[in-house]
Amino acid sequence: MTNAELPAPRTVVPIEPSLLIAEAFDQAQVTELRHSVTSCVRAAGLAGQRLDDFVLAVNELITNAVRHGGGQGRLRLWLRGGDLVCEVADHGQGISERRLRDRDRPPPETAGGWGLWLARELSDTMEVETGDAGTVVRITAALAARQPLTRPRDG
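User: That's the sequence. What structure does it adopt?
Assistant: Structure tokens below.
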């Protein structure tokens, strides 16, 4: 290549252009982190009951990480297309296969065991990767409410 030849332009793509929060936490940061999540998801476009539901789901996940996942965790929140995605990871001993398969609502008198059930119920999707080295739970919330498919009426 000579000085007269210009190099081909390079496209630089940010690794995570839509990352809103990436933070490690322990018990002392749970409340502050919940407030940060609330502000971010509100600014991203969630409102009303959908905002409240998603923040409660995230709070359940970060609380579970502290209680069952070694006392600390990592939270990442980002935009992916029209969805908010929240990932909470910990270094606990994992979640049993039986617990992961259980989709039933816990009995009302049960003091514990509500976290994963609530997170699943209050988000649009939930994925769990778990093992001896820890757990990663990823939930999503669509920014625009998804409309059910309907058939046109004959008229």
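The two ends are 70 Å apart (CA to CA).
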